[in-house]
Amino acid sequence: MSQQQEESFIIKYKKELGIGLIAILMLLFIVWNAKPVEFSLVFFTIQISKIFLIALFFVLGMITVWIRFRASNKEKDKRIKELEEKLKKAESGSTTVA
To answer: What is the pTM of this model?
Structure first.
């Protein structure tokens, strides 16, 4: 058999092994951060699992980025419409009848 036909297990399943490794690391992270912690915010204090607190702030960060991205896109769309209108006006003003 040629060497090209015989792929090693690692090469053949490198994507699946990578996903499996990431999944194992995530599970370890969750288990290590499952202990409850005391979270204080201005007027209140609660006991919450550390992993839920991490997830909460991760989601809040994602929402913040999404809102900023959406606002940025609206500004870009508005500017594009303004420029298209100016272009139409410029084209209609510069057309001559031949």
So the answer is: 0.54
